[in-house]
Every structure is written in structure tokens, then in C-alpha cells.
Design brief:
Elements lengths: L39 H7 L7 H10 L5 E5 L1 H9 L8 E5 L5 H11 L7 E5 L2 H5 L7 H17 L3 E5 L16 H17 L3 E3 L1 H5 L19 H15 L1
Parallel strand pairs: 1-2, 1-3, 3-4, 4-5
Helix pairs in contact: 4-6
């Protein structure tokens, strides 16, 4: 899912509705830039998109660049790095990939986070788990993946900041789904888990909410992906969480 991407996703498997705006991000190594994000050959050859940031990671390491914070996530994070390049500078790097779910991010943790030796990892995910982008997932499945990512980070001395999923009353690529309560449940758990592990919680839901369980349309016109104004509101929250 990504309003910033250039091509549509295709459905994978019978009846699986996937968001229609994802494309291979810039610098995705050997992946063809014209390939739809989740077509079967890509799922079979690079399910987690490990190649996506391979070249960028290698360059950072070769240059001896100091990485302070890695933002791990899906299209919301990917779009953030594109929209607010000034924020994603001076040691802050974005590692968001459109349409991704937490199991895919878990596979990417070592290559896209640990290898860069950041001081902090900011993880924001869950929207696509709720939508079932890579298959049906329970809240516990999502929790397990968050816990595994956090355990990997902490084992390598990396502090964790967990970002709330933006409030949502619907997902345009999954119109039959009513995600509001699932998003609230996930964010409530993330808040408590961040405290439990000595991390921080970035409450984006609080600044993006319309007060009715959905997102303020001035901050996300498609009700999912933040606008420039939405990212501006999120930035102050993020800065406090990763400082």
C-alpha cells in the first residue's frame, strides 16, 4: 500500500485483495523496477524484499557512515522518507517497504537494521497485518513478530521505539474490513509493551485522529497514508521518541 508508489499491486491467490499502489522502491537491487510488488515470482524469490535496500546498506557500511536511527516499516514509513527528506538525514535512515507485514520486516531486521548498528530502531507496522496482505493474521501473530523484532534489537544493544498505527475506520483496498477496533487493540498493546521493554512509544494515533476512530482527512486523504501535513504532525512525536 502506498500512495507514493508508481504501479498497482496485483492480487496473489484466489480472492486475495491487496492494496493497489505498491511498487519496488528506489534502489531495490536486482528486482525489476517495473515489477508489481507482490507478483508470485517476487514472492518466491525475495518474499521479504531483502534486495530492496541491499545496495544502500552496503554503501553506508563502505562509507563508514554513522547511523543513529533506522525507521523500519511499510509504505507509511517509505512515504515519510520521500516526503520529508530533511528529517531522514544526519544519521536517520528509512527502511520502509510498501505493503509489507510484520513477518516480512522480521526477516529484514538483521540486514536492514542490525547491520547498520543504529542507536535506535523505530518500528511502525501492523496496518497490513490487519488487512491480511500476506495472509490471515491474528493480533497475537502480530504481537509475536513485534516481540521478535524487539528481542533482536535489544540483543544487539539497539534501543526500540514503537510507533502507533494511524487510526483507521476503513482500508480502501479491503472495503469489507472494519479495522478500527483492531488498530486500537494493537496500539494499546504496543504502548504497554514499549513500557515493558524499556522502549518508547510514539503515539501517532493521538495526533492524526479525527476524534471518531478514524484519521483526520487533512492528514491522510486516502484515510491511511499521511499527507505532508500528516507527516509534519508525526515528526514532533517521532523526534521525541527516538532522541
Amino acid at each position: 500500500m502506498n500512495q507514493f508508489s508508481r504501479r498497482s499491486l496485483i492480487a496473489v491467490g484466489a480472492g486475495l485483495a491487496l492494496p493497489a499502489l505498491s511498487q519496488v522502491p528506489e534502489g531495490c537491487g536486482n528486482q525489476p523496477k517495473t515489477a508489481p510488488a507482490l507478483q508470485p515470482p517476487l514472492l518466491l524469490t525475495d518474499w521479504a524484499w531483502l534486495a530492496c535496500y541491499r545496495e544502500e546498506n552496503a554503501k553506508l557500511l563502505a562509507d563508514g557512515a554513522k547511523v543513529e536511527v533506522v525507521f523500519m516499516g511499510d509504505s507509511i514509513t517509505e512515504g515519510w522518507a520521500r516526503t520529508d527528506a530533511a528529517f531522514f538525514a544526519n544519521g536517520i535512515v528509512g527502511r520502509g517497504i510498501s505493503a509489507q507485514t510484520t513477518p516480512q520486516m522480521l526477516v529484514r531486521m538483521h540486514s536492514d537494521v542490525v547491520a547498520l548498528k543504529p542507536r535506535v530502531v523505530h518500528i511502525m507496522a501492523g496496518t497490513n497485518d490487519i488487512a491480511g496482505n500476506t495472509g490471515p493474521m491474528s493480533l497475537q501473530d502480530t504481537k509475536n513478530n513485534f516481540m521478535a523484532m524487539c528481542e533482536i534489537a535489544k540483543a544487539h544493544g539497539i534501543r526500540v521505539a514503537l510507533g502507533a498505527s494511524p487510526p483507521a475506520s476503513k482500508y480502501w483496498w479491503k472495503p469489507e474490513l472494519k479495522p478500527r477496533e483492531s488498530v486500537v487493540a494493537l496500539n494499546d498493546w504496543l504502548r504497554g509493551y514499549a513500557t515493558q521493554i524499556g522502549g518508547t512509544f510514539a503515539d501517532y494515533a493521538a495526533v492524526l485522529s479525527n476524534g471518531k476512530g478514524g484519521v483526520n482527512l487533512s492528514f491522510a486523504k486516502d484515510e491511511v497514508h499521511p499527507t505532508a501535513e500528516g507527516y509534519k504532525a508525526m515528526r514532533a512525536v517521532a523526534e521525541a521518541a527516538v532522541k
